[in-house]
Write a structure and sequence with these properties.
Layout: H1 8-19, H2 23-36, E1 41-47, E2 53-58, H3 65-71, H4 97-104, E3 106-112, E4 119-125, E5 128-129, E6 133-135, E7 140-146, H5 153-157, H6 162-179, E8 184-189, E9 192-197, H7 208-220, H8 222-226, E10 228-235, E11 238-245, E12 250-251, E13 257-261, E14 264-266, H9 269-279, E15 288-289, E16 291-296, E17 302-303, E18 314-315, H10 318-336, H11 343-349, H12 372-383, H13 393-401, E19 415-420, E20 424-429, E21 432-437, H14 438-455, E22 461-471, H15 474-482, H16 484-489, E23 493-496, E24 501-508, H17 516-528, H18 536-551, H19 561-573, E25 587-591, H20 592-598
Parallel strand pairs: 1-8, 13-16
Antiparallel strand pairs: 1-2, 2-7, 3-4, 3-7, 4-5, 4-6, 8-9, 10-11, 11-16, 12-15, 13-14, 17-18, 19-20, 20-21, 21-25, 22-24, 23-24
The chain binds adenosine-5'-diphosphate and magnesium ion (MG).
Adenosine-5'-diphosphate (ADP) binds next to helix 2 and helix 4.
Length: 602
């Protein structure tokens, strides 16, 4: 074996293996170059999902003939004037994209600078550069790629259908468009328009946030714009802005989560993890919020040179970043209080909007006249086993307090008038009607109570008359036993019971009568998921959510008027009661104006 230096074409093809994974990655590199070149408009054309032809045209600074030739050389870049990798302000800096793409396709560059009278053109095919030739082109650059991967048949085989590749291309351009509202973006497939976003108006600098929301509206859809909350937070030089969706607007995957660091779209585990942490209280494991977050960090506080495609970054202080995201998102969500997504009701009923008035103002929630503790005790009883019924005078007082209540602004969720299908409470408010899903509401209340009790380390346990044995797989039983101490803190006492079984001796008192078998199995599943990295607190919150879910099995429970009203009052005084732990709304509101519309009175 003799060692030798590889020829440049081979070196470029090796680099292309990382940089040009599929047509969308080539488009991403070229659009980034156009952004770096100061373009105000970028046009992308794609044929056959990018396999036979792609082009990116811009009105940026352009290149001189000398630069055109140099741009195709490996490690040639105009973006590191001081060779300072700690201080990167452009999207590109590696000088790899053009030579890499040029080694795996037939590439043509046509460009003209502002102070040149004519344009020049150069081609490269499988690594062989052509002579420079004069051409016709307005100020700016057009880069055309034909027959991508013609020189690397192995990679060609991995291409998915044109439709799939096209979807990836549009996604890549959309991400860059989100971060750059000052640039117009167009994507065409032959003659079909796939993306068309205009340049934000001149005053966008005055109101960057609204320009951004307009752009997000255009790309993520107006459902997102209407159901999202602004985020604007800063900590130690790190700045986080953007919009996050209400928990009730959620998806089965994280594809609608767009994260940017210094204008660069990233798919970063740390950031996704922080988002998950912030929404933990509001969404089931398998549901994902929609959001677009822009993190700005001093260039020396992060390393962008981690990944050839530059989709990952490394932060000097990861804890700081995580903390900023979690607290900023939690704050925004808490500010939204019980607001739920308007889509929920609209999808089902047109005029129904979940507790957000037609005038767009969320009701102002007041402290109920009875204390939250008394209300909670009262509600707990309704769901507790009958033997637990407590007839203490304080509870009676609360009950009588709600007799003959008048509908008023004091009760944003209204006065209960009926229970239908043993599941829905119908209440009259001063401006319409409210329908509560008592099961979802109760689940949320129990969860909030559990969290509160947990914070004060005073979760009451309730001994079981007959301890319950739960048969599990051996590994699952081991996982449960390993966490027995944590569960105990939450009021659940479990012990090993031979191999592959556990015995439950005590359950949290505020859960009332629960399906112990189901709970323990779900907890074992929770633990099986890769939750090791979670802090104890987060994990406890997870467990509390699972427990709350199991406490609320009795959807079909008959409630009397006092019980219904107590539930409404407790919802009003409990944070985050607008949605259950799975992101479903706990109630919807129909305003008089909407009802009148339904009957053609308006
Ligand atoms: N659309 C463009 N407009 C103007 N200059 C460009 C354009 N695309 C590429 N260039 C020039 O070619 C150089 C090499 O591009 P590239 O291979 O993508 O590396 P990098 O972007 O990392 O510098 C860039 O530094 C830039 O000077
Ligand atoms: Mg580049």
């Amino acid at each position: 074996m003799t060692i030798r230096l590889l020829p440049p074409t081979t070196v470029n093809r090796i680099a292309a293996g990382e940089v040009v994974e599929r047509p969308a990655s080539a488009i991403k590199e070229l659009v980034e170059n156009s952004i770096d070149a100061g373009a105000t408009r970028i046009d992308v054309v794609v044929r056959d999902g990018g396999r036979t032809y792609m082009s990116v045209a811009d009105d940026g600074c352009g290149m001189t003939p000398e630069e055109l030739s140099l741009a195709l050389e490996r490690h040639a870049t105009s973006k590191l004037p001081d060779d300072d990798l700690e201080n990167i302000h452009s999207l590109g800096f590696r000088g790899e994209a053009l030579p890499s793409i040029g080694s795996v396709s037939r590439l043509t560059l046509t460009s003209r600078t502002a102070d040149s009278d004519n344009a020049w053109m150069i081609s490269i095919e499988g690594g062989d550069k052509s002579e420079l030739a004069p051409a016709a082109h307005a100020k700016g650059t057009t880069i055309e790629m034909r027959d991508l991967f013609f020189s690397t048949p192995a990679r060609l085989k991995f291409l998915k259908t044109p439709k799939t590749e096209l979807a990836h291309i549009v996604d890549a351009v959309k991400r860059l468009a989100m971060a750059n509202p000052a640039i117009a973006f167009f994507v065409f497939d032959d003659s079909r328009s796939l993306l068309k976003v205009q340049q934000a108006q001149d005053d966008f600098l005055v109101d960057m946030l609204s320009a951004r929301l307009n752009r997000l509206d255009a790309i993520m859809g107006n459902e997102f714009a209407a159901n999202s909350l602004p985020v604007d937070a800063e900590r130690q030089g790190l700045q986080l802005t953007g919009y996050i969706g209400l928990p009730t607007l959620n998806r089965g995957n994280a594809q609608m989560q767009f994260l940017f660091v210094n204008g660069r779209p990233v798919k970063d585990k740390l950031l996704y993890g922080a988002v998950r942490g912030a929404y933990r209280d509001f969404l089931a494991h398998d549901r994902h919020p929609l959001l677009a977050l822009f993190l700005h960090a001093p260039t020396d506080s992060l390393d962008v040179n981690v990944h050839p495609a530059k989709t990952e970054v490394r932060f000097r202080d990861a804890g700081l970043v995580r903390g900023l995201i979690v607290s900023a998102l939690k704050y925004a969500l808490a500010e939204a209080g019980h607001r739920a997504s308007t889509t929920v009701g609209q999808a089902a009923l047109g005029a129904f909007t979940p507790h957000q008035g037609t005038n767009g103002t969320a009701p102002v929630y007041r402290q109920p006249r009875a204390s939250r503790g008394a209300l909670r005790d009262l509600n707990r009883q309704f769901y507790a086993p009958l033997t637990n019924l407590d007839n203490s005078p304080s509870v009676r007082e609360v009950v009588s307090d709600f007799e003959n209540i008048e509908v008023s602004q004091d009760y944003p969720l209204g006065v209960a008038r009926a229970q239908l299908h043993e599941t829905y409470i119908v209440a009259q408010t001063d401006r319409g009607i409210v329908i509560v899903d008592q099961h979802a509401a109760h689940e949320r209340l129990v969860y909030e109570d559990l969290k509160e009790a947990l914070a004060e380390t005073r979760v009451k346990r309730q001994g079981l008359l007959i301890p319950e044995v739960v048969d599990l797989e051996e590994a699952a039983a081991d996982r449960i036993i390993k966490k027995a101490e944590e569960f105990r803190e939450l009021g659940l006492t479990v012990e090993a019971f031979g191999s592959g079984a556990v015995v439950v001796r005590e359950t949290p008192a505020l859960l009332g009568e629960i399906d112990i078998q189901g709970l323990v199995r779900d907890l074992a599943d929770d633990l099986a998921e890769d939750n090791e990295a979670l802090s104890l607190k987060d994990r406890l919150a997870d467990v509390a959510a699972t427990m709350a879910c199991h406490s609320s099995v009795r959807a079909g429970r008959l409630l009397n008027g006092e019980e219904m009203n107590a539930l409404l009052r407790q919802m009003e005084s409990t944070p985050n009661s607008g949605q259950c732990n799975h992101g479903r709304p706990t109630y919807i509101e129909l305003n008089i104006a909407d009802i009148e519309k339904l009957f053609g009175r308006r």
